[in-house]
Specification:
The chain is mainly alpha-helical. The chain has helices at residues 2-21, 33-36, 60-68, 74-80, 82-85, 138-146, 168-171, 185-199, 205-208; strands spanning 47-53, 97-102. A two-stranded antiparallel ribbon has the order 1-2. Helix 3 crosses helix 4 (74-80).
Length: 210
């Protein structure tokens, strides 16, 4: 039995010697298993996270601040996902899936100039007065002489009213308004055009000097 053991040991030693001569490490010089399995730590400057799905209202700076703890990491995220995002890092769309890569780069996101909404003007107050400045027509002359541009003025003596001082009998409920002064200035001007087309200047010229 002992002889058998010695033969086996000799065979093993010769095999080890041959392996050493061919560049194989001997059992004593072989690295320990724990060293072979050691994994070098990733540099602190590059840390990969999970894939993130963009939600409404997200921006690269906000995602970088949330996932990397530093909004300046937006550039690394953009670089890793430029094929998904496109040429404008300020434009990301809900549903896009981004690979989050933190680079700790101290780079500022390009400033996007906010678009200001147009300032809404207060609605102009509607006045019953009509300006005839700069208008040398017969119509403006009549308005100036008859009412001074006041579309609601009434002559207490005759009952005539409005820009052109139409009598109630002449007005005759035009366009559904009982009197001229109760109608908008635009309606009064329309009726003036009707009367002017039918009678010319005669209803006003002798009295107004227009």
């Amino acid at each position: 039995m002992h002889d058998v053991i010695r033969v086996i040991r000799g065979t093993i030693n010769r095999a080890i010697s041959r392996m050493s001569g061919r560049g194989f490490a001997s059992p004593r010089s072989a690295p320990r298993f724990s060293k072979l399995m050691a994994i070098p730590a990733l540099p602190a400057a590059v840390l990969a996270f999970h894939v993130y799905t963009v939600h409404s209202g997200d921006s690269l700076t906000a995602i970088a601040a949330d996932k990397c703890g530093n909004s300046a990491d937006w550039s690394g995220i953009y670089a890793a996902n430029k094929g998904v995002i496109g040429g404008d890092p300020n434009l990301i769309l809900p549903g896009q899936r981004l690979t989050i890569t933190c680079t700790m780069a101290d780079v500022q996101l390009p400033v996007q100039t906010p678009v200001q909404a147009p300032v809404q003007q207060a609605p102009a107050q509607v006045s019953s007065d009509v300006s005839t400045a700069g208008d040398g027509s017969f119509e403006s002359c009549v308005i100036s002489r008859e009412s001074g541009g006041d579309a609601q003025v009434v002559n207490p003596a005759s009952g005539a009213g409005g820009l052109f001082q139409f009598l109630p009998s002449t007005w005759a409920d035009y366009d559904g308004y009982p009197t001229a002064e109760s109608a908008p200035a635009s309606v009064q001007e329309q009726y003036f055009a009707v009367v002017y087309a039918q009678q010319g200047t005669s209803p006003w010229a002798p009295y107004d000097g227009c």
